[in-house]
Amino acid sequence: MHKRLQAYLEYYREELQKAYTSRFDKLEIPANLKQSMLYSLDAGGKRLRPILLLASYEVYGQDVQKVMSSAIALEMIHTYSLIHDDLPAMDNDDYRRGMLTNHKKFDEATAILAGDALLTYSFELILDDPLLTSEEKIVLAKELAVCSGPKGMVGGQILDMEAEKQSVSLEAMEEIHALKTGELIRFAIFAGAYLANATDEQLHYLKQYAYYLGLIFQVQDDILDVSGEEEKLGKPVGSDELNEKSTYPKLLGLGGAIEQKEKYVQKAYESLKLADAEDSLLKALTDYFSQRDH
Amino acid sequence: MHKRLQAYLEYYREELQKAYTSRFDKLEIPANLKQSMLYSLDAGGKRLRPILLLASYEVYGQDVQKVMSSAIALEMIHTYSLIHDDLPAMDNDDYRRGMLTNHKKFDEATAILAGDALLTYSFELILDDPLLTSEEKIVLAKELAVCSGPKGMVGGQILDMEAEKQSVSLEAMEEIHALKTGELIRFAIFAGAYLANATDEQLHYLKQYAYYLGLIFQVQDDILDVSGEEEKLGKPVGSDELNEKSTYPKLLGLGGAIEQKEKYVQKAYESLKLADAEDSLLKALTDYFSQRDH
To answer: What residue of A is the nearest CA neighbor of B147?
Structure first.
């Protein structure tokens, strides 16, 4: 990994943690609920989504404090979705990134409520941010609701459940991914650039970029589940096979999946160029995500 | 019940159903998710919260279309909380109002996601309403997040769980109720009056009113669980006793609980008077809720 990118990732992971920690310090809520919310937030690993948001902002804008509430809100939405996903009724996972999942560390009821609380509080964070104009608050909070709700992530989760244990086409699989993981990535890229006053044309091509980036992320996930190292992943390899999930390697073979990823990377590059973001950290992040080993 | 009140309740229940149905008709989301969301929305009985919102608006304002998105959003939040509350990990209820609970009708995973979807979509509804000004959207969506999130309803649910199987003081119990059920009632009363341009003084006293109304609602719930008729309630009587919950009858005796309710009713009347809402439907609703048999 480039030194510059690595330093960037480390720096912003720390900034994000500081930012949400200081907000939680001031938050007067039941202690057990706060602990449960923070447990899963702190367990967060790569901070992919908020870092994409920061990177997208920095293509066109300056002081990242402007986007910090949106970045944290996005990470909270992602975290809530993982807590609910891990529940026995859903994926029934006891561990995530080598740590106990929320419902194993606390209990199921607390985990459900901690997820609900993170989801709800994410909107308050944005709507209460003094650094945002009224227009910005409305656009961002509404977009967050669209991307994460029934038209977006939650819709994708339902489709994903329905597609389990049956073979689906590449197109159907990509539609599921576009909703389930793609919409939050789209929010990240949109929110950053929007708050940096990117033009409508730039936003248009960034939306395209976000679409391909989401697919890159997913195909690499599928590839790692076949060929990754358990120690780096922090989870068992081969779980997709076990769960009879439709994946890129299953539909295209491992070689085909890697080829497909390369196609998406080229598309992502093209979109970035058209959005005047060719030399930005977004490009380095695209490479990073397409080559990550965990 | 007064004929006028009855007609009012019936009329607005229909209006509310029409309003959310027309929104769901236009909503392009996975069919199974929509069915699950609508199943629980349609199963809604009294529509207490949105009707309070409409009644609060009508004390000072005219065309109720102005508050319809807030009223539906509130009912969706209430509905999501019931779906999650009924889950096996929480109250583990198979029936609600004589109908199968969401996770029994569908499955647990779908119920969790339908709850998440209702919660998230409620914010979109308000933020996307062309009848609201930017300022109104922000105030309402933020207030909804505060009332329903970790500082409000969800916080109350956590405290309620912690208080189970131990005896708590009347004060502690009332704090739990104020959060768990009171905050959504506060939102209802606030949102209606705010959108009708009530003065700050009126809003102040209405907040007091909402506090007492919430307690009235709770004490009557507790009373019905001891002395109600199962057929009217649509649920077994005595479940609080079974769940070792702290209730008004347990702390004060049945007679003491009824006396306490009367005190709250008087306080509620006083607050309404100070808010210039003495002769409004809110007063009739106060009586209705304090005397309801289901």
So the answer is: A120
Integer Cα distance of B242 and B162 in angstroms: 16
Strand, helix or coil for residue B264: helix
| Residue A120 to residue B33, Cβ atoms within 8 A | no
Residue-wise pLDDT tens digits, B68-99: 999 999 999 999 999 999 999 999 999 998 89
Sign for the CA dihedral angle at A31, A36, A37, A42 comes to positive
User: How far apart (Å, rounded) are the C-alpha atoms in residues A20 and B41?
Assistant: 34
Contact (CB, 8 A) for B294 and B1: no
Kindly provide the ipTM of the predicted complex, given to two decimals: 0.95
Contacts of A180 (CB under 8 A, 6+ apart): A153, A156, A157, A159, A160
Tell me what the pLDDT averaged over chain B comes to: 93
Domain boundaries, chain B: 3-291
Report DSSP state, residue A94: S
Cα of A254 to nearest chain B Cα, Å: 30
Which residue of A24, A102, A142, A158 is the best one to mutate when testing the B interface, meaning the one whose CB has the most B CBs within 10 A?
A: A158
From CA A238, how far away is CA A236, in angstroms rounded? 6
Of B27, B109, B124, the CB nearest to A89: B109
The rounded distance, in Å, linking the Cα atoms of B21 and A164 is 30
Instruction: For residue A115, list chain B residues with Cβ-Cβ distance below 8 A.
Output: 116
Structure token digits, residue A61 = 């804008």
The rounded distance, in Å, linking the Cα atoms of B71 and B196 is 14
Collapsed DSSP state (helix, strand, coil) of residue A145: helix
Q: Residues in chain A with pLDDT < 70?
A: 1, 233-236, 242-243
Choose among B197, B185, B183, B187: nearest CA to B57: B197
The shortest CB-CB distance from B157 to any of A27, A90, A113 is to: A113
The domain made up of B3-291 is a member of CATH 3.40.50.300: no
Q: How far apart are CA A219 and CA A247, in angstroms?
A: 8
Identity of the residue in B87, B112, B155 whose CB atom sits nearest the CB atom of A29: B155
Counting one residue from chain A and one from chain B, the pairs whose CB atoms sit within 8 A come to: 153
Match 């890129």 to its residue by tokens: A248
